[in-house]
């Protein structure tokens, strides 16, 4: 029987809802939907320091690496 569950990733591990119980060694497939890359802008404040603005207001380490590669 094939079933589909929605899960999240926390600390690099896939977390299924608490109501889902799978036997050990169950074969599973993970499908990651495409997501739009976070867009950002970099502005210079009056004091000369950079201001990073994102669409969703979150600056992750991945975004910092992306910004570093684009501004290098």
Unreliable runs: none
Strand content: 15-25%
Chain-averaged pLDDT:
82
Percent helix: 10-25%
Number of strands: 4
Radius of gyration: 19 Å
Computed structural class: alpha+beta
Number of domains: 1
Rounded to the nearest angstrom, the distance between the terminal CA atoms is 51 Å
- Number of helical stretches of at least 4 residues: 1
The helix-strand sequence is EEEEH
User: Outline, from the CA principal axes?
Assistant: elongated
Order of strands side by side in the largest beta sheet? 1-2
Main pleated-sheet profile: 2 strands, antiparallel
Q: How would you explain this protein's 3D organization?
A:
This protein has 72 residues and is α+β, with helices and mostly antiparallel strands. It has one helix spanning 61-71; strands spanning 8-10, 13-15, 40-44, 50-54. It is built from 1 helix and 4 strands; from the N terminus they run ββββα. Strands 1-2 form a two-stranded antiparallel sheet. Strands 3-4 form a two-stranded antiparallel ribbon. The longest helix has 11 residues, at 61-71. The radius of gyration is 19 Å and the shape is elongated. The mean pLDDT is 82.
């Amino acid at each position: 029987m094939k079933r589909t569950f929605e899960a999240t990733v926390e600390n690099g591990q896939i977390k299924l809802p608490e109501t889902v119980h799978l036997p050990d060694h169950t074969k599973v497939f993970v499908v990651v939907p495409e997501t739009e890359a976070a867009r950002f802008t970099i502005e210079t404040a009056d004091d000369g320091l950079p201001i990073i603005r994102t669409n969703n207001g979150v600056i992750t380490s991945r975004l910092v690496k992306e910004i570093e590669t684009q501004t290098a």
